[in-house]
Amino acid sequence: MSSVKLVEKITWGRERVNAGAAGSTQLVVGSLGGDNPRALLVAGIHGDEQPWASMAINKLLSQTSMSDLLGSMTIVPLANPTATEVDSRVSMLDHLDLNRSFPRDLRGSHTERLAASISSIVDSGFDLVIDLHGGGSWCVNAFSFKFRGSESFAEAFNAPFIVEAADRHNTLTGYAQSRGARVVAVEMGGRCGEEDYWAGIIATGVKKHLESIGVLDGDGEAVECKSVPVGKTSVLRPSRGGIFKPRAGSMKVGTVVMEGEELGYIVDSASFETVETFTVPYAKTALLLLRPTLAKLEQGAMTYVVAPLYK
After folding, report:
1. Is 144 left (phi over 0), alpha (psi -120 to 50) or beta?
2. pLDDT in tens, 245-279
C-alpha cells in the first residue's frame, strides 16, 4: 500500500470573490484525481462552525493513501471566509445566510457572489455532494440529515440521530439536488473540549461515503449503523435574557434523556437567582444540540434542540 497520503497530493486553487468596499476575499478549492465518480465536499458554510469540519477534512486527507483514490474529489474547506474570520454565522458585510442564498447572483452582495462561485463548482457535475456543518463556537450537536432521494447516505455518518431534512431549494444541498447530485449533510461537533473526537467521527463518515460511491477504494466491510431516526425537532429558548448555566455537559449531546430531567438554567445577571429552568419535554427525548458552557444569553436565543424518538 502506498505511503503517500492525499494531503501530500491535493492541489489548492484560489478564486477571488468581490467583497465590496472591503476589497475581495479568496475561496480556496482543492482538487484530487480526475476520474469518475466525483464527489464535492464543502465545509464552513456558516462561519461560526469552524474549525471543526476543517479538522475532519484534514484527518481524512492525512490518513488516506493516494492508492485508494479511484475517482475524484473537489474540496471547499472554508466556504464563508469573511464570516469565519470574525467567528460569525454570517458575513458582517451583508448579514446574509450563505445557506439561504443559492444558487447564484453574480451581481449581488458578497454572500450572494460567494453562493454564485460555489454554485459554479456544483455545475461541473458531481455524483455526491457532502455538506459539513457543526455546532459552532457556542454549542455542540450530533445528528445527520436524511434527504429525499438520498436516504441511504444519512446512515453512513453513524451520527447518534437522523433528522428529516427540510425541502429547501435555496441551500447548497437543495441546489446540488436540482443539478442531479445525491446529497448528505451532517451537524456534528462544536466547541466542547472533544473537538478531536468529533472530527474523527466526521472524517470516518466522509470516508465511508466516498467508498460507497467508488471515489475511494474501501475494504468492503459493512459497519452496523446505530443512528436513530427522530421526530420533528423543536428548540428550547429562554423567555428572558440572563446568564446561562449548563447542567448537561458536552458529552450529553447525542444521547436520549428522560422527561423532566433538568438541562440548564437562566439566572439573573446581577443576583444570580434562578429565573428559568430548561427541562426535557418528552418521555424519551433525543438531545440534538446543547450549549456546554456558561454564557450570557438574550431572550429567545437557541439553547437546546430536541426531538421525540419514533420508538
Report:
1. beta
2. 999 999 999 999 999 999 999 999 999 999 999 99
Helix residue ranges per DSSP H, 123-234:
172-178, 195-212
d(CA 270, CA 293): 19
Residue type, 29: V
Predicted confidence at residue 311, as pLDDT, reads: 61
Taking a C-beta distance cutoff of 8 angstroms, is the pair 79, 118 a contact? yes
- The Cα–Cα gap between 217 and 199 comes to 21
d(C-alpha 57, C-alpha 199), whole Å? 8
**Per-residue model confidence as pLDDT tens digits over 43-70:** 999 999 988 889 999 999 999 999 999 9
Q: How many CB atoms lie within 10 A of CB 121?
A: 18
Domains, in order of start, for the chain: 6-212 (3.40.630.10), 230-308 (2.40.50.100)
pLDDT in tens, 66-119: 999 999 999 999 999 999 999 999 999 999 999 999 998 888 999 999 999 999
Print the SS3 string covering 259-292.
CCCEEEEEECCCCCCEEEEEECCCCEEEEEEECC
CA distance 120 to 175: 11
Give dist(CA 60, CA 207) in Å, integer: 7
User: 10 Å Cβ neighbour count for 144?
Assistant: 26
Partners of 49 in the β-ladder: none
Residue 67: CB atoms within 10 A of its CB come to 11
